[in-house]
Design goal:
The chain is mainly alpha-helical and 380 residues long. The protein folds into two domains: 339 residues, no CATH class; 33 residues. The protein is built from 14 helices and two strands, in the order αββααααααααααααα. Strands 1-2 form a two-stranded antiparallel ribbon. Strand 1 and strand 2 form a beta hairpin. It is globular, with a radius of gyration of 22 Å. The chain starts with a helix and ends with a helix. The C terminus is likely disordered.
């Protein structure tokens, strides 16, 4: 069946807000502003930025409460059938604490890595989470991967290796970081994906059976992540860590006071931080809705489209150099992700054909077209 206007709007919202989230976070890293000591320097506060992301996730809980209140007042049972509010709403939020801690750790490490590498590489290396989820689910969830999924994992690894090789071989003339910093950033992002894979496996094993409304789950993880990371800002202020992890005055691991001072001295920087907070809230909402109304596979494809937009904007506005090896790596990476998720050329052609039929001859059931073509193939 052809997509409805609402589904098209949700897919556009997901791609746009997802792209804005990565780009605004990197934009903040490139802005110079006067710090608390009167010195102009780049904004380098990954833990502070991670807190902002969790604030964005926390707003999902607020959105859930508002939606639930609105539907409940209608007194027609809508809250129990609507995709965004139905499910087990009376659960112990502490079951989300461990996944939230994984998310908090992974996000913080990723933002340190993003500060050191290119935003396009950051987005591509996030695709490695599929590899680790596949391996961990095999080990701890007793899931058996198919030959196609193993083939997809191999292609993803090859694609990521080519992207990493491009970062190592080519020195970006417009980058403020050396090759060692860029490779360190790439490695940190991969490490973060291992932690996020642990989060996904834990959620599947202990949380998925609870039938928790997704908005509520994301909101509670945002609450735990923000609360713990905000408290950690205190010891981080006294922990010393030098470059490339941090370049704060006094080599502090994090200086939240300095972050607010820099934001106060730069409207662009404040806009970038707010862009991260607001975009992650809408991105989570759109991603959950796409998964509910379309499929998780569609969400994966849209996430790949987001990578393309991030890459284009990175070249256009962050003056990142274009390298063919990056493009080859991305194509192989995308192919591996499609194979792993069961997206092959023939079903895609069938979907295109069904869309053409629906436009030329009116509404045509996609399943009818797919089944009819499948029968034709069997007869041949």
């Amino acid at each position: 069946m052809a997509w409805t206007k609402r589904q098209i709007l949700l897919t556009l919202l997901m791609v746009i807000t997802g792209s804005i989230n990565s780009l605004s976070t990197k934009w903040a890293d490139t802005i110079k502003s006067v710090d608390r000591y009167g010195k102009e320097k780049l904004f380098n506060h990954p833990f502070f930025q991670a807190c902002g992301m969790f604030i964005g996730e926390l707003t999902c809980l607020l959105a859930f409460k508002i939606l639930y209140k609105y539907y409940s007042r209608r007194a027609d049972g809508t809250e129990d059938v609507n995709e965004l509010t139905k499910g087990n709403r009376n659960f112990n939020p502490l079951i989300l604490f461990i996944p939230a801690m994984c998310d908090m750790t992974a996000t913080s490490i990723m933002y340190i890595g993003l500060n050191l590498t290119y935003v396009s590489s950051f987005q591509m290396f996030r695709g490695s989470v599929i590899v680790f989820v596949g391996l961990l689910s095999t080990a701890f969830l007793q899931r058996v991967l198919t030959k196609k999924q193993w083939s997809g994992i191999v292609l993803i690894i090859i694609g990521l290796a080519l992207v990493g090789a491009a970062d190592f071989i080519y020195k970006d003339t417009n980058s403020s970081h050396g090759t060692n910093d860029v490779i360190t950033g790439d490695m940190l992002i991969i490490i973060a994906q291992i932690i996020q894979a642990v989060q996904m496996v834990v959620e599947e094993k202990f949380v998925s059976g609870q039938d928790i409304p997704p908005l509520q789950a994301v909101g509670w993880e945002g609450f735990f992540g923000f609360s713990i990371l905000a408290l950690l800002q205190i010891p981080f202020y006294f922990i010393r860590a030098g470059p490339p992890v941090t370049e704060n005055s006094g080599d502090r691991l994090e200086d939240v006071i300095d972050a607010f001072v820099q934001m106060g001295h730069s409207g662009k920087l404040t806009t970038a931080i707010l862009g991260t907070v607001i975009s992650i809230a809408f991105f989570n909402f759109a991603g959950i809705s796409v998964t509910k109304e379309l499929s998780a596979t569609t969400r994966m494809v849209l996430d790949s489209v987001r990578t393309i937009f991030v890459w284009i904007f990175s070249i256009a506005f962050f003056h990142q150099d274009f390298h063919w090896l990056n493009l080859v790596g991305f194509v192989i990476l995308l192919s591996g992700m499609c194979i792993y998720n069961g997206i092959t050329g023939y079903p895609l052609l069938l979907k295109i054909k069904s869309c053409i039929c629906s436009r030329r001859y009116g509404t045509v059931d996609e399943d009818v077209v797919v089944n009819r073509n499948a029968q034709d193939v069997e007869q041949q």
